[in-house]
Each structure stands twice: as structure tokens, then as C-alpha cells.
Amino acid sequence: MKRISLIVVLSGLLLFAGKSFGFLARKVVKTTSNETVYVPSGDKAAAKYPEGEKIFKEKCVACHQLTGMGVPGAFPPLKGSDFLKQAAKKRIIEQVLNGSNEGLTVNGTKYSIPMPPQVDNYKDAVNVVNYILNAWGNDYGMVTLDEAKTVKIVR
Ligand code: HEC
User: The dihedral of CA 11, 17, 20, 23: what is its sign?
Assistant: First the structure.
């Protein structure tokens, strides 16, 4: 009996906490038509680069995961990646247009599985790269279409 009431109280508390702190997980954006739109928290990149977010969710999540954390030992993280932060922007654009089989080191861990090419045009490359440069708290700048066009698409 005691245990049951404890469970009831605990779930009540959890429900209450969920309701009260739910706002922390959301960011409210007022649109011009005055509707309220919710954007997942911490993802200002999704609001700024919606096309990029869409491409990421279609093409990159399988390996780099929705959290941008990747899969340890197999697929490197994009969130907080020192490689993404330090590499030349052109190198990152190449990564999504042409893939890479060089192997690379991210935050001290070496990744050697090849990454296949992901997008086939400069516009998509710019959108998705700008998204990952700024998602999950990354603050790694941005790339331009002109910069992307300096990359030769190899097929
Ligand atoms: C099939 C799995 C797979 C998919 C899909 C994939 N990647 Fe990768 N990615 C990898 C692997 C493996 C590496 C590391 C090895 C390498 O590049 O040589 C990597 C490395 C990277 C790197 C550089 C390392 C780092 O973590 O900073 C970036 C940036 C990157 N990927 C972005 C993307 C983007 C953006 C997409 C979608 C458009 C994408 N990847 C889709 C597997 C994948």
C-alpha cells in the first residue's frame, strides 16, 4: 500500500516537473502571422538554416545522430568537434560533396570508416554545412556559396 502511494506521488511530481520545466526545452518564436511556433531548444541553427536541418535529418542522422554526437569509434561527433571547428571551411564543404576516405581525428579519436558523398550541389552543401557549424551549441562560423563553388565535385 505504502509503495503504491509512493509511486503515485512520484509520478505526480514527475508530471508536475515535466509541465513546469517543459518551457526550458522549447523556444517560442512569433511569426509574422502571430502564430506561436516551437523550436527545439539549443538549436538556433534549425531556425536559421531550416533547409540545412532538413538535409541533416535526411542524410546525416544515420551516422552522426540527431544529437550530433555520432557513434563512438565509428562515426565522429559534429557537436563540439575540434576538426569541424579548425578545418578550412573548404575542407568541410568537400566532406559533404565528395565524401572522404582519408580517415581523420576528431577530439583525439581516429575515425577510419570512409564517409560517402552526401549532397550533389553547392546550395545543399552550403545549407547543411552552415547547419552543422551552428547546431548543438557549435559556434563555428559559416560558409558562402562562392566558397562552396571553389570545390570541384568529383564523381
Ligand atoms: C554512412 C555514414 C555517414 C553519413 C551518412 C554521413 N557521415 Fe559524415 N562522417 C562519417 C565518417 C565515418 C566520418 C569520418 C571518416 C572520414 O571522413 O574519413 C565522417 C566525418 C564527417 C565530418 C568531419 C569530422 C567531424 O566529425 O567533424 C563532417 C563535418 C561530416 N562527416 C559531416 C557530415 C554531414 C553534414 C553529413 C550529411 C550531409 C554526413 N557527414 C553524413 C560518416 C558519415
Answer: negative
Centre of ligand 1 to C-alpha 151, Å, is 17
Summarize pLDDT for 77-127 with one digit per residue, the tens: 999 999 999 999 999 999 999 999 999 999 999 999 999 999 999 999 999
d(CA 51, CA 53): 5
CA-nearest residue for atom 42, ligand 1, is 115
**What is the Cα 8 distance to its own chain's centre?**
38
* Burial class (CB within 10 angstroms; exposed 0-12, middle 13-18, buried 19+) of 35: exposed
Are the CB atoms for 149 and 127 separated by under 8 Å?
no
Question: Atom 43, ligand 1: which residue's CA is nearest?
Answer: 115
* Cα–Cα distance for residue pair 12/111, rounded to 1 Å: 45
d(CA 141, CA 6): 50
Which ligand 1 atom sits closest to the C-alpha of 81? 27
- Following CA atoms 114, 115, 117, 122 in sequence, which dihedral angle do they give, to the nearest 10 degrees? -130
